[in-house]
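Supplementary Methods S3. Complex input for the tryptophan-bound model.
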Amino acid sequence: MRVLSGMRPTGKLHVGHLVGALDNWVRIQNEGNECYYFIADWHALTTNYDDISGIYEYTMDIIRTFIACGLDPDKSVIFVQSAIKEHAELQLLFSMITPIGWLERVPTYKELKQQLVNKDLSNLGFLGYPVLQAADILMYKPDGVPVGEDQVYHVELTREIARRFNYLYGEVFPEPKELLSHLPKLPGTDGRKMSKSYGNVIQIDITEKELQEKVLRMMTDPARKRRSDPGDPAKCPVWDYHKAFGTTSSEKEYIINGCKTASIGCVDCKKILLNHMIERLRPIWQRLNELKKDKDYVQQVIKDGNEKARTFAVETMKEVRKVMNLRF
Ligand code: TRP
Ligand code: SF4
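Predicted complex, serialized as structure tokens:
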């Protein structure tokens, strides 16, 4: 199977990205699939056109994090969208056949416009976000696109664009499927959705000391105001972390009983979690530190990935121009 997915460089990656997306990407890679994973830096500009200061560093940081978390440049093609100009050409051609109504109906379009009220998002680039995403995807003719729930509509739209293109000009693009990981989303440290704007994220690139502080300050079941108050793990964000970070079933049993009978305190519970998080993150931190020092290696990974992606993209565009009678 060939798969493709991408992330926007709008910030550093957090542990939600690790257990919600990257682990899945790594598994798909290690099952022997042909993988294309890229940084959608043009997509970052659709909302962050007025603040471009972070895009380069975030891109480098995310690529280091990809590698540190197990994406292997010898197995997966890791590349940067803006280096492959063919994406822009395909986006332009798709924009000819994409009705504006399809774009205005995209749920993320409506939501983000309402959410980011203090930002002017009445731009062509933002409306065309899914057209660019369709170009990213269809360029590599993947069978599957590993994404979260929020991206399903984009993949559906991608199929509609593929269908319309194939109908108008000839069969070029197979229709890709979304590959949902079905993992519940990890909440932020305050129990709300993990989001940079809430200040409740735990970044992957965090020191052990900061991690300890964040976990110990994490919100718990509000019923456990005092150590002697019983609680319920089902109402506690710490519990979601236990489920995601390898807490053993006997530890889980101990926590459930201890929480419900108030025989353990939240600090005891969080210390068990901390051990598992540190165990999981320590090798990633080590690799990240090595990669931060080895800038040449990371640059080489990007250069090689871009070249491989470009080779594929050039071939797809030859086919596209041919069926569209663009002969020059
Ligand atoms: N829209 C995706 C997101 O915000 C990023 C993205 C851009 C993407 N192009 C893609 C994801 C192509 C999968 C395939 O997460
Ligand atoms: Fe949450 Fe653990 Fe405290 Fe129970 S004991 S409320 S699961 S932190």
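The longest strand covers residues 2-7. Residues 220-221, 224, 231, 233, 236, 238-239, 255, 259, 264, 266, 269-270 surround iron/sulfur cluster (ligand 2) (CB under 6 Å).
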